[in-house]
Design brief:
2 copies of one chain form a homodimer. The first copy, chain A, is α/β, with parallel strands linked by helices and 511 residues long. Helix content of chain A is 44%, strand content 19%. In chain A, the strands form 5 sheets. Chain A has an 8-stranded parallel sheet with strand order 4-11-10-9-8-7-6-5. Chain A has a 5-stranded mixed sheet with strand order 17-16-15-19-20, with helices on both faces. At the A-B interface, helix 12, helix 14, helix 15 and helix 16 of A face helix 12, helix 14, helix 15 and helix 16 of B.
């Protein structure tokens, strides 16, 4: 695919380049929604923040120009990428029956937008299954109807995936998406879920859609513009977003933070570094004329969105998107629930994890949630597969407590004294691994947080499973000198003693 | 105490006003360490970021001026607060035996510093218990020796708490602190722990010291200047900090983030909003002349520190410092361990929680860690005390699943049908509570994250304990209609059935 190149991957997230007639958009990207009539803050300011693509409403542009096909880049004085939404929602509200799909599609072609959406059926309100089914089939019909108009276009065209929140309908829509030659698939979140901050439900639907959509095409998620949810959507495969939240929030004195939204009046201190918050205090912002305050708050909100996108991209580059989500999930109950959804998609996400990264940043093993890190799971599965191919008869288990583990005195001693044994390390997060891996990623590059009961329960279960699969005849296990490993070893020994298919010796080395 | 007023409290953290000769410092506060000879970035810039107090080294100032007592505010051209460290460390390094405690104390008086430290024994390197004991007694001797010089001073004087990392010695030092009329107590972190990022050990020592120090006097923690650790230190009662890290890191191309430190070369995107990071890219920063880059990185680091302090203060104002620590603890294994230390001090921290807050922000009940929230514990203890005073004979238990809980159909029905029963709600985080509280804080103002096995285990244990204490004769429990409450109710019923001191009825209401 020439118009969309992806380079860096983590979970189902990726950094990509989307080529448009007016320049390249680096994804993940959020298009600020622009009002073609009364835009605030000015486009020049938005560009100076680093946003090189905007989205506006083709229908409003059409009405404003009474259907005259003015070139949209000239009209808005914006020489970078412009995406236009079709305005299905507005059509519904204003009941303008004369503007149909063909009209809007042709108009979007004529005004020269870079990324265009066909006229879909708005999913803004809660639909019954039957209504959603009808919206889906009508949208599919329109998508086919638009094909003759758009086949010769040099624009990128967007197919709106329909059927949400009904997964059976989503499945029909996603299979249509495979057959139609649109460039971008778009998911419209039911706004009712967004308003209620039911991020877990949105994520479940987006994850489901992504799973069934062509992975090489970008996925746009409509109308999601809060720093809280963006990293989770990216992790499940969202590439493009758009939102008017920066200005809508600002008009209502709402101030985005990393972990939520505050009313400006609630704040005593500005928990932000952006040029606005570095220059003004809460009091000064509250006392300035409304128009100015709205502009500054909108700017702050855009800075927050920009930072969140940067954070996510940096996390993808480092291969630490999972760790980033673990962190974010603890900022609010709704994100903690959202994280459980991401966990549920772990197996699917894992597939997208590349085998190696240029940079191998230490794996952060924080607490029991870290056991679910897809990167760790994938590596362990490989190692366990390798081990069970070998099926060593005699194994000697050593607690891995001090890096590099193959420098531990227990290992050096054991190798000398028990040459007929295959030595394996065990670890509360890394499970079982051979000494040969002790200097490779992540067996050397990791940092360990807490080793509490839950971590030990999970780890010991896994370690026992691996050992059982090896069906050894003799086992020697070394007692740890490190206090924090007592419980884990104790649990393993207790369980090993319940079986009689092997001999078991427990040793302590003096160090 | 006139020189230090505290107004807002959360955990053992507080927002206070420290009055100095050159203005008021709002605590928690971090004093940037200033080099009197080659300061970068310029003091004017540091002030423009909102820092109104700096710290510098009295000994270096003494050497530079060959012992001449120049007025330090004039010399540095800084009209706000100046704190001077005594330079004990430098004395050790340069072996300058002629500068003794009396000399430095008199000099600090003469140059007119606002906050002054006596010449303590550096704890920079790892000391044996005997060495630490000697340092402690020598420092105590000097603190007494300095008294005649400082009693008539209008400056604030700092008593360095010694003995770390030995708690028995710390205890001796903290009891001296109660007897001596110093204004501020200061804790010197063993740098060896800081270098190894062993934040849990530092926190344990600071928590221990704070517990035994006069609570009405501010506590300064020397040499800790990373956004990661500051919120945890504030939660355990740290008021003042100082650090040169912003510039030391910058000289080494190290870039502070909310969750750690990066080498600038490692970054692909700048995960920050500050005026520096909003203006430049990684590439531009790397390509500019070194001196300029160091200045910009130092500025960025100062912006990060400023933001962290603001975040902490806003969290204290909202009464959400615990939630903030829960969040931060998931950013790195070392902070996850640090959080366990804070948990250990919960009972002590709880004391500092004021009964009511002007603003009652929703309690964020995220996962099992939230059960340890001192605010929640304190409120529940009060409610349970109240309940066990009443000892109702017949109790009727209703799952609280939809706010406001006293509008649930089960409650309305039960009240009508069973007037002879005392109705109590049960909840996976809020435990047991009477309907009368359903509209009060936090029984109305809270948000619930996940309800997993661990949350249920913890909650059911607590709920059973409360019920057992009431010694009822009859119990009715209502089955929930909400799926997510099945497991909790099931567990409670199972346990209730093991006892025979009461009759038990299980009911389901159709809604």
């Amino acid at each position: 695919m020439e118009y969309f190149d992806t380079r860096d991957y983590d979970l189902a997230g990726r950094i990509g380049k989307l080529r448009t007639k007016h320049g390249i958009i680096e994804t993940p990207y959020l298009f600020p929604v622009i009002d073609p009539i009364r835009q605030q803050p000015p486009l020049e300011t938005i560009r100076s923040l680093g946003f090189n693509g905007i989205i506006t409403n083709a229908y409003l542009f059409y009405r404003r120009n009474k259907g005259l096909p003015k070139k949209i880049h000239d009209s808005l004085k914006w020489n970078n990428t412009i995406m236009t939404d079709s305005g299905g929602y507005q059509v519904l509200i204003y009941g303008d029956v004369e503007v149909d799909n063909k009209t809007i599609v042709e108009y979007e072609k004529e005004i020269g937008t870079d990324i265009a959406v066909i006229l879909d059926i708005p999913t803004g309100t809660k639909m019954s299954w039957e209504e959603a089914r009808q919206a889906l089939f009508e949208t599919n019909k329109r998508a086919v109807e638009a094909l003759p108009y758009i086949m010769d276009s040099d624009q990128l065209w967007v197919f709106p995936v329909q059927g949400s929140p009904y997964k059976d309908l989503l499945l029909i829509s996603t299979s249509t998406a495979w057959r139609l030659p649109y460039h971008i698939n778009a998911f419209g979140s039911p706004t009712v879920l967004l308003e209620k901050y039911e991020y877990d439900k949105i994520l479940d639907l987006v994850g489901f859609a992504r799973l069934h959509l062509p992975p090489h095409k970008p996925l746009h998620v409509f109308g999601v513009g809060h720093p809280m949810i963006i990293p989770f959507l990216v992790a499940l495969g969202g590439d493009l977003f758009d939102s008017a939240s920066y200005i809508l929030y600002a008009r209502d004195n709402r101030y985005m933070t990393e972990t939520g939204t505050k009313k400006l009046e609630e704040l005593h201190y500005l928990p932000c570094n952006c040029p606005v918050c570095s220059k003004y205090t809460v009091k000064e912002l509250l006392e300035m004329p409304r128009k100015k305050r709205v502009e500054y708050l909108a700017l702050h909100n855009l800075y927050m969105l920009r930072k969140e996108i940067n954070n996510v991209k940096q996390a993808i580059k480092e291969g630490r998107l999972w760790e980033y989500l673990e962190y974010k999930s603890k900022s609010h109950p709704t994100l903690r629930k959202a994280f459980e959804i991401v966990k549920r998609y772990t197996r699917y996400l894992e597939k997208y994890n590349p085998e190696t990264k240029g940079t191998t940043h230490a794996l952060l093993l924080i607490d029991k949630d870290s056991h679910h890190n897809p990167r760790l799971i994938r590596i362990k599965r490989k190692v366990y597969g390798m081990l069970s191919n070998k099926k060593p008869e005699n194994i000697l288990l050593i607690p891995a407590y001090k890096k590099p583990y193959n420098q531990q005195i227990e290992y050096i001693e054991a190798k000398r004294r028990y040459p007929e044994y295959t030595i394996l390390f065990y670890h509360p997060y890394l499970g079982v691994f051979p000494p040969q891996l002790a200097n490779t990623y992540p067996y050397f590059q990791h940092e360990v947080g807490i080793i509490d009961e839950e971590v030990i329960t999970k780890a010991s279960t896994e370690i026992l499973q691996v050992i059982n699969k090896l069906r050894p005849r003799k086992i020697i296990i070394i007692q740890p000198v490190e206090e924090k490993y007592y419980l884990l070893t104790h649990k393993i020994i207790k369980w090993l003693r319940t079986k009689t298919t092997y001999t078991l010796d427990v040793l302590s080395f003096q160090t």
